[in-house]
Structures
1.
Amino acid sequence: QEKTTKITINADEKSPVISKHIYGHFAEHLGRCIYDGFYVGDSSSIANTDGIRNDIVEALKELQIPNLRWPGGCFADTYHWKDGIGPKEDRPTIVNTWWGGVTEDNSFGTHDFLNMCELLGTEPYLSGNVGSGTVQELADWVQYTNFGGISPMSKLREENGRKEPWKVKFWGIGNEAWGCGGNMTADYYANEYRKYATFISDWENTGGLLRIASGASSDDYNWTETLMKNIPKSLLGGVALHHYSVIDWKKKGDAVTFTDAQYFRTMEEALKMEELVTKHAAIMDKYDPKKKVDLIVDEWGGWYEVEKGTNPGFLYQQNTMRDALLAGATLNIFNNHADRVRMANLAQAVNVLQAVILTDKAKMILTPTYHIMNMYKVHQDAKLLPLAFESPKYTFEGKSLPAVSVSASKDKKGSIHVSLVNIDPTKDNEVEIDITKLGIKNVSGTILTSKNLRDYNSFDEPNKIEPQIFKKFKVKKGLLKVTIPAFSVIVLEGK
Ligand code: AHR
């Protein structure tokens, strides 16, 4: 019998609120995310609103997605927004050079995206083109979307059918500037950023714009250091970070038939997020001790080989319990670092990488990752409850990782939520949470697990993995004892 892990939850008054924006998503013009994903066109037989699939809108509304990043990714630095406005039949085409070399007809553009965000009840996060665009082009985009007064761009917007500005708050200044965004050095990009940020004006002086610098790839700490050192804080709202859980970029492994060793590696990469956000945040602390600048992990998730028979440039992959565990553990890390991590975007929302939704013509499935996002939404804008514990180990071939990950929060109504993940695929783990100081009378729980680690929801069996009521816990003398089954994610609610 393994010993029970003791967890102490602190109802610390000073703890930060977990920004709802940690639960953000990402939609790129990549593969079947936009076209044949979100957007089917208004002549489609699939139920839609101005071409946007109604079933996807409903599913994402249920998740209360707080923000949606668009149009890329790498695509963003090739995108010229003026190609995507005005009558659809007049819009020019471009070639999507990063993703499959397909012809982009620009039928989904600024109005389509921003109106879709209104349908979803979510905040748009626009990624500006720095790599192949101009300062003027990006400044015009801000004026087009945000200015309510008389100006050339507001006039153009009105001519295109939209009177009121959308008031977009989140603006990315380029994407992966160290790579597909222009292969820039950190110093060069910091200067470019300063220039772009200067001309992206908050047209109505509401102080409402958040300018986000293209961030580091995983452990490129020099990138963060250079940006934090060289960009005046008055121009900097957030610094991004991208980290994918990839086994090996040359041999990413199958999304479903992964080996035990590949599973371990994926989890190792996922849990590395703890070290990454800790170290990037420490660098930010040096230059911004008051924590004004947000750390924004605007791309994260599992990345495997594409599904056999699909376009390699479309990044379509299935989503198993492995992905659910990856998501649960990563979101716990973000929650626990809520003092600095204030926004994040899972890559990507529909049909690409670690998607929450997969579609096949008229069919749509919710992946295990979707269910995690749904279970965890209780943490959005709730107050973090810091906790302390030492995790039991998940050992594989002489190497080990912490098996259990936990985060806890108190929402505005006073309910407490604790999310627990056990990544160990072979062993249940028992934890004992001291809830004496939390004033909890009733506890209930939800669990996501399955018979096999490699299980997934398919178009033939769409509900194979679904959250279930969880009851394997006992409360005695202020101690909440929980058995977390192997490869499972649990969210407990205490009232
Ligand atoms: O999400 C897929 C791609 O991964 C994005 O376009 C890019 O920013 C990253 O390299």
Note: Residues 186 and 226 are 6 Å apart (CA to CA).
2.
Amino acid sequence: MVMLKDPTLLRSDCLIDGKWITAPGGPAPGRTTPVTDPATGQIVGQVPDLGAAEAEAAIASAARALPAWSARTAKDRGAIMRRWFDLVIANADDLAALMTAEQGKPLAEAKGEVLYAASFIEWFAEEAKRIYGETIPAPTADKRLLVIKQPVGVCAAITPWNFPAAMITRKAAPALAAGCTMIVKPAEQTPLTALALAVLAERAGVPAGVLQVITGDARAIGGVLTGSDVVRKLSFTGSTEVGRILMAQSAPTIKKLSLELGGNAPFIVFDDADLDAAIEGALASKYRNAGQTCVCANRLYIQSGIHDAFAARLAETVRTMKLGRGTEPGVTVGPLIDEAAVQKVESHVADALAQGATLVTGGRQPPLGGNFYEPTILTGVTQKMKVAREETFGPVAPLFRFETEEEVIAMANDTEFGLAAYFYTENVRRVWRVAEALEYGMVGHNTGLISNEVAPFGGIKQSGLGREGSRHGIEEYLEIKYLCSAIG
Ligand code: ADP
């Protein structure tokens, strides 16, 4: 049971066409899917098992709502969104409680995510007013050339479970600000936070059809959303594997795409780094959300002169981390999302050990029940091991020893992914060399935390397409229209 100050935020129905529905086609109770707490396996809620027909209904509603929503002034849309932001802040404790119950992250981290999620609503409510066009000096005297920006239209979002609130607001807020309407299909593991956000949007005055949330059969709903020629854009955050499928499904309708896919972030510590800062950054980047973020450090490259000191200090701190239910005071690492996630982490650790890595700490499931895995450190890791090739998505820090800058850049870039990278050095010349050489969409220098609403988040290579947040984030929901006027 999740105890909420406002129990009406715990929904077991979906918002489609301005109505809260529980069953295909009507108000009668229908089939539901349970939502479970990954720390205990207990059921915390039920959401409707909807499918293709409801996705079609949502698209039709979004299309009906589009003309009026896009015709409002940006100031007007921004004011409604500002009310949504205020309501999210006012209900932050409840949203965090729901998130911890269905996702597992410690309550303080969940609260942090709610504030982070809210910051996108606030930012894009403001950015709505700054959708500027351009005038272009014409090549001939008898013409006047200008560029206007218009909303893309009906948009869809398919979101993951690791950030149940922020992955939604980072897409829905710029869409609404731009004048688009949006259908959200949240992850099956974490639909409750998504539905609570929809309650608050409705309370803020977001009209029927402008923001809808649909739960149920991911493949069926995804198939309708990607196949529709009314849906002009899909924004997806999740695995590269599913991203590829959705991209292929979107090809026949040449849908605009934003894709935030997998990462394999290198975290490089040079001999001349500030060791305290590097340890702090490694902890924040590696163990946040139990290692389940796409920008989590996946490979830690430590230069040989500082390697042993770094490994010893990291192990000392990691051993003090408290594993447990996110609701327990003092817990810093929660459970993994499900059994499959635990199995993946186990297989990566086993593969590393079989190939000669050394286990410094962790490396097993503690006797807590649920999907827990101990914060782990491995040393003597090489590029051939699974921990180097694939995203582990768990609380495992594999430490690689390296000698030269050239060598580490080559190893860091030796991956099909290109989302986030981090490096620590006090040498200003090296800062520029390394920052420019890393083939990543985002680079942190002397910090392990880079995400915020004012900066462009996104990857290159097979980590995706497009950017979220910042002034660039709203462009993803706008079309450029060029107007050429002959006045001669
Ligand atoms: P993860 O591996 O982190 O769970 P996924 O990429 O599998 O990430 O899932 C991210 C989102 O994509 C979820 O909302 C999930 O329901 C959805 N999804 C997964 N497979 C499909 C599919 N074939 N079509 C549409 N959506 C999908």
Note: Residues 158-160, 185, 187-188, 218-219, 222, 238-239, 242, 245 surround adenosine-5'-diphosphate (CB under 6 Å).
3.
Amino acid sequence: MPVLSLQNISKRYGAVQALTNVSFDVPAGCVFGVLGPNGSGKTTLLGIVTDVLKADQGDFTLLDQPASARQRQQIGTLLETPNFYHYLSGYQNLKIAATIKQRGADDIERVLKIAGLTARQHSKFKTYSLGMKQRLAIASALLGDPQVLILDEPTNGLDPEGIAEVRALIRQVAQSGKTIIMASHLLDEVEKVCTHVAILRKGNLLLSGPVSEVISRNDFVEIGSRNNQALREVITRHPEYVSVVEAGVVLQVVF
Ligand code: ADP
């Protein structure tokens, strides 16, 4: 039984068609990447799945339940950077989140341990590195021991060290048996962290399935420096297909 099953989800904002008939299943226990360039509909999709937004059409079941019956505590979310208090410690910040979720000290200690923050739990949040701040945010999402963790671009804005820490934490949480659904605009990240992927382009589902099957297909390839001769030719012929370019490096070419 899939953890999440989407059937023909569509969403429009005024004149912008953000999602068109998107359907895919997320198997239990996988790390599922929702991959696509900025503006492809990833955040909208995660918003619908977490009941922050309502789809115009289509339906979905999460943990085999329709929206009306869904148990909120079974789903942990990190959709935007939480408003942590800079002058409070990591522990105190989690205490506030735990109070809202009606969780006790044992749960706070559990998630601090998972996030590798036990030794620094009493340090002020403002002294944390970028990676530690994001690990605290993931720890907060894990309060209540949800079965499913939903993360929107969890490594965005981090330094290389923070990116490595957060990716390691995601893999560790997955190994503990939770299903993780995460948005990313980086093919490289999906290849390194995810077992399954759905690729969105302009609100349409391009492909979905196990990363090993989907990414090996020719209709989605990486990548390299713009100085690469073959890549330069592709870009010249099909500029519309180059979906993500960062710091002169082409990260995605979608055919
Ligand atoms: P992604 O997360 O892949 O960057 P989004 O889901 O944020 O994509 O956006 C999909 C499309 O919907 C984009 O064209 C974006 O500009 C548009 N969009 C997103 N949110 C809104 C909104 N609140 N109002 C109008 N357009 C929006």
Note: The pocket of adenosine-5'-diphosphate is lined by residues 13, 16, 18, 36, 38-44 (CB under 6 Å).
